[in-house]
Amino acid sequence: MKVVKIAVILFLVYAGIVTAFESLIGFMQPTPNSTLVITTFDERGAPHDRVVSRLDSGDALYVSANHWPRAWYRRALANPDVEATIDGTKGKYRAVPIEGAEADRIGAEHPHPAWFRFVTGYPPRKFVRLDPR
């Protein structure tokens, strides 16, 4: 019984670490040169901005859902006509979800360190290619 209590406590502490880290990311919204602001639109057409990591590969531009909160990703799948502000310039893009070999290649080119995966709770990583419209 004592082992179960310790396991539950450790799980709750870990869940608290993940929640705290994800909350800080949401509030602080980092904006270094390696990010962009993606604007997605909900079913009523209302815009929603989110800072995401910019992933360049060859001549293509990608972003990924790296965290459990991923409303922007679901909106991009539902309405793939998005906008992205890159280095202060806003453009129109088509969000194309990618899987398979292309997703594996982008993941290998832009890996996450183990500490990052740990503090984010090991969410599945989903990629979107932003094709100019």
Describe the structure.
With 133 residues, the protein is an alpha+beta fold. The protein has one domain (2-132): Electron Transport, Fmn-binding Protein, Chain A (Pnp Oxidase, Chain A, Roll), CATH 2.30.110.10. 38% of the residues lie in helices and 35% in strands. It is built from four helices and seven strands. It has a seven-stranded antiparallel β-sheet. A hairpin with a 5-residue loop joins strand 1 and strand 2 (47-53). The model has no long low-confidence stretch (mean pLDDT 88).
The structural domain count equals 1
Tell me the CATH superfamily.
Electron Transport, Fmn-binding Protein, Chain A
Strand order, main sheet: write it out: 2-1-5-6-7-4-3
**Helix coverage percent of residues?**
25-40%
pLDDT averaged residue by residue: 88
Pick out the low-confidence regions: none
- What letter string, H or E per element, gives the SSE order? HEEEEHEEHHE
Terminal residue distance? 60 Å
Global Rg? 17 Å
Helix-strand makeup class: alpha+beta
